[in-house]
Amino acid sequence: MVPIRHVMRSLPLLAAVLGDAYGVEVVIGGDSAHTDGKTIHLPSLPLEGDATALALARGLLDHEAAHIRETDFAALRHWSPTPLAHHIWNSLEDWRVEKRLAELFPGCRQNFQWLIEHYFAGTETAVRAGDTNPALSILNAILLTVRAWDVPGVQANRDAHIKEVNRSFPGLWPRIQAVLDKAGAQCRSTQDAIRLAEAIVALIEEEKSRGQPQDGGQEHGKAAAGELQSEPQEEEPAAAQEDRGQTAGAVQPKPDAVSGAAASDPISDLPEKGCFPTMANDWLGELVEAAAPTDWPQHLGERLAQALGEHPVESADQGLAVARLGSKPSKTLEAAAREACLQASVALRARLYRLLQASRLVRSQPGRHGKLDPKRLYGLAVGDARVFRTLGQKPAMSTAVHILVDSSGSMSGAPIKLASQACYAVATALERIKGVNVAVSVFPAGSAHDGVTVAPLIEHGAKVHAELDIPAEGYTPLAQALWWVLQRMVLLKEDRKLVLIVTDGELDSAPAARKVLRTAETLGFEVYGIGIQSESVRSLLPRSSVSVKSMSELPEALFSVLQQALAQRPAGGRP
After folding, report:
1. Quick check: 398 and 435 in contact, CB under 8 A?
2. What is the longest distance spanned by two Cα atoms in the chain?
3. CA-to-CA distance for 409 and 390, rounded, in angstroms?
4. Are 507 and 513 in contact, with CB atoms under 8 Å apart?
5. Which of 27, 217, 333, 400 could form a disulfide with 337 if both were Cys (CB 3.0 to 4.6 A apart)?
6. Cβ proximity of 425 and 502 under 8 Å
7. Where are the alpha helices (DSSP H) in 149-237?
8. Is the confidence at residue 573, as pLDDT, over 60?
9. Dihedral (C-alpha) 466, 469, 475, 476: value to the nearest 10 degrees?
10. pLDDT value for 228
């Protein structure tokens, strides 16, 4: 099995393991991080990324997987929210789905806590002087209140924004807090988050309507200030009174005083008596009526996507990307070709079987159970109970083999036909050896506009078939295809994993291919290569590859490499 500590350091393999565990598809490549509700897309990242980039990528995988698993996208399609309602819903839904994923996969909890501390406990989310609209503190206060439920380190920034809300919109926050308190206990589904978000929006709109001018700006300012002072039936919580600078039994402010503003506060120094209510109404109006907000506080997923997008890849040689699943048209090999392949397969299988059988033979050993051995009875006199004969146990063959075939344009004609036939012969031979799990894949598997693709012709665990007659076209993205193979194989239960690369030409990116091979070696994969009319594969695999100059050499070369690999684990045989 592949050590988990190595998997954690490799983004493509980590994506494969997490995607399999969460039941989502992960694609690595492109220029942005996003999800479409079914697939998580990560951008191409530098080959030599730091630990922080890997942590952020894993955080995005956890976060988006939580949405794909837990968010009811059908409910969202039937909801037509305003930008404000959607932003508030996102704050609640993020917390809900992350909490649910952490319950199912406890390891996610620590990841989420680190990310929340990283993004929401620092100075980036603190109240900044000169913010264009104090109403944005409402969104920040909601976001940070929800985040503080799991990470107490966020509380300082939360309290600062709540203070700003109380200063600019007296009496509003206690009502919003009451809804958030319900959310912490009652938010069980996407529909609950929608309902609670709409309730908060209703409170904001109600606050805005209370300050709308009716008889002129200044006169209304006086009336609004007086209204706030003359509502004895609406008793505010003590916390709100403190933020207004009031105490129990305090004298009501004069009609021309602005409620909730300290003497040293810039807003309290406004020259017009009615300006504060009017400005507050304008601030809330901008928030409620915003069509395409650009300066609103970012949620965790948006921050992660932006951070990953800040790791530019200058060229394909320096980028890490994984091939996507594509499709490759294939036909059944002709009858004469199949007959020749089967004959070669029988010969290979006989040779491999003898080698594997000899490596598993173990002499009988004395033991405490098994068949009684009369020659060991004397041991009873000296207290040795090992008077039985038992067969020694050696681990059974447990090997996964993946044949990765280059079907680029330079393989057109006889080369691709012979490579297809050789793959069929080897796959047929390996399939009949107990404990060997074989697969065959081909790359590229589509046109240039499809991106980098690879197609499985024979899946691991599937029955070998003869539909391996494939066309050759396109380029040679070996690194991306090999990452895809490693992603598939890291999930297999076999103890030993072999990859056989069949290629003929120069690679699109040799540095990227070497990076994959180093990772494969670290993880314990064995990679072998066969170069067809080319020596390029020797530069990548100098000790575990062969090259053939004529097509007639290909089957025997392929057989010899696999025979060597299966017979023993060669010291230094990996790249």
Report:
1. yes
2. 115
3. 58
4. yes
5. 333
6. no
7. 155-168, 172-186, 190-210, 217-229
8. no
9. 30
10. 36
Cα-Cα-Cα-Cα dihedral of 268, 271, 274, 277, to 10°?
A: -40
DSSP string, 314-381: -SGGGEE--PEE-----BPPPHHHHHHHHHHHHHHHHHHHHHHHHHH---EEEESSSEE-GGGGGGGG
Q: Name the range with the highest mean pLDDT among 47-56, 258-267, 510-519, 562-571.
A: 510-519
Q: The tokens of 122 are what?
A: 């620092």
Burial, 59: exposed, middle or buried (Cβ in 10 Å; 0-12, 13-18, 19+)?
buried
Q: Where are the alpha helices (DSSP H) in 105-135?
A: 107-120
Q: How does pLDDT run across 432-443, given as a tens digit for each residue? A: 888 899 999 999
Positive or negative CA dihedral for 364, 434, 548, 539? negative
Q: Within 10 Å of residue 120's Cβ, how many Cβ atoms?
A: 24
φ, ψ for residue 210, nearest 5 deg: -70, -25
- Quick one: which of 251, 212, 209, 214 has its CA closest to 229? 251
Token duo for residue 19: 């995607």
Surface-to-core class of residue 50, CB atoms within 10 Å of its CB (0-12 exposed, 13-18 middle, 19+ buried): exposed
Task: Give the model's pLDDT for residue 81.
Answer: 94
Rounded CA-CA distance 300/97 in Å is 12
Whose structure tokens read 């990560």? Answer: 42
Count of helix runs (H) and strand runs (E) in the chain: 20, 15
Pick from 528, 484, 534, 474: nearest CA to 506: 534
| Whether the Cβ atoms of residue 378 and residue 337 lie closer than 8 Å to each other | no
Instruction: Name the least confident of 203-207, 291-295, 383-387.
Output: 291-295
User: CA 482: distance to chain centroid?
Assistant: 19
